[in-house]
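idk why but the lab printer keeps eating my pages so im just putting this in chat instead. protein + hypoxanthine:
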Amino acid sequence: MEIEVLIPENLLRKRVRELAEEISKQFGNSSITVVSVLKGATVFTADLIRYIKNRIELDFIRIKSYRGKEKGELKITLLPELNLKGKQVLIVDDIFDTGESLKRVYDEVMKHSPKTIKSCVLLDKKVKKRVNFRPDFVGFEIPDYFIVGYGLDLNEMYRGLPYIGYFKEGE
Ligand code: HPA
Ligand code: MG
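predcted complex ->
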């Protein structure tokens, strides 16, 4: 299976900087508690927070969903250590697919009584959503391809690719 480039490195860098600016503008002077969704959002998060001007606190949440290309059951396997009570939280995720995983993370963060919650995803895949929920910030809309690279994996491989690549369905 060959990987084709969907979003090259320079485009990623440009858009991530723009997103950081949009986020800085929206949050004004307040500090932001970033809750990054492991493991897929790590690379995106590392780039994004370096361009957000606000004071940043960083923590992680883990939700497991995919088994290879098949969708498994959703389970939160790690919670943030920081106290989120009264915080302005920004959830950062890699990809918005059916939406169930981000919605689940949102609901979990909500239980910890933050002041506000916003969410940011790098990719929004054009598939039918199963939730009535949309992220506040979106990097790119992408077609329904299986994506790897820049944090995203296929069976734990390819997370280190510096670009977003894809396998066309059926290949
Ligand atoms: N690639 C990797 N992980 C994913 C994808 C994808 O296309 N969609 C949801 N999780
Ligand atoms: Mg993931």
